[in-house]
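[User] Could I get a sequence and structure tokens?

[Assistant]
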Amino acid sequence: MTKSTPTVGVVGAGVMGTGLAQALATTGHEVILVDRSEDVLASAERSIEQGLRLARLLGAKGPREDRGTVLKRISCTTDYEGFERADFVIENVTEDWETKRSVYERIDPLCPPHCVFAANTSVIPVTRIAGATSRPDRVVGMHFMNPVPLKHTVEVIRGHHTSDETLRAAARLLAGMGKEQVVVQDSPGFVSNRVLMLTVNEAMYLVHEGVATAAEVDRIFKTCFGHPMGPLETADLIGLDTILQSVEGLYQAFSDSKYRPCPLLRRMVDAGLLGRKSGEGFFSYAITRP
């Protein structure tokens, strides 16, 4: 990679992909945002514009560029147009192995040989993802936190074949986004989700068994431990469907009953109670349409 500001392909225009596109464009990166749905891309554009407006109102640090200038750095596509000039790709699709594998099989022949692939995954091993490409040494994990523009640290995962140069490229990209990193070794769930998913799943069991209400569980964590958010409010923010996929992934990876999903979690997902994204989870939220 020779350019000082790499061109970044962002795969998936959901909550994480939208936040990434905003954070990258705000820091001067050309972004190619791809999703299968035109409607999802249109919604992502509206969310990014709204996010830029809110950032200005909240006095965000960094260059104070016109919103139009930032938005012009983002190209939206449903067919990976422009990926032949990508220096870096960050993939954000659902935590389903077959879905992820199909993405890497699609982008591998499109992108130039020097392009680095970063999986924004919370549970699927980076080494397995690398095996689906012809460039396993240029595959790395980047576990961004939600909301991406406001979170300053990223969990970076080194797969079995990830090279030192790939790690340096990842560090340069994150530094260019104004973010710090913590590098860990490859393992399902890595550090953050292996601990967090157990915590939120067990918090759900406490509600499921009638030991405490959701509000009482969260109040203990906030007032006794000083956490800004309780585990169930955190689960609502992430999305209960995403939580269920992550816990199921850990359960399958380790064959350990401590990762068995709480029945209440399954029931809420079946009922469409997904947290903030649906307006109701363990708590209720007013949905703001962009």
User: Anything to note?
Assistant: The first strand starts at residue 8 and ends at 11.
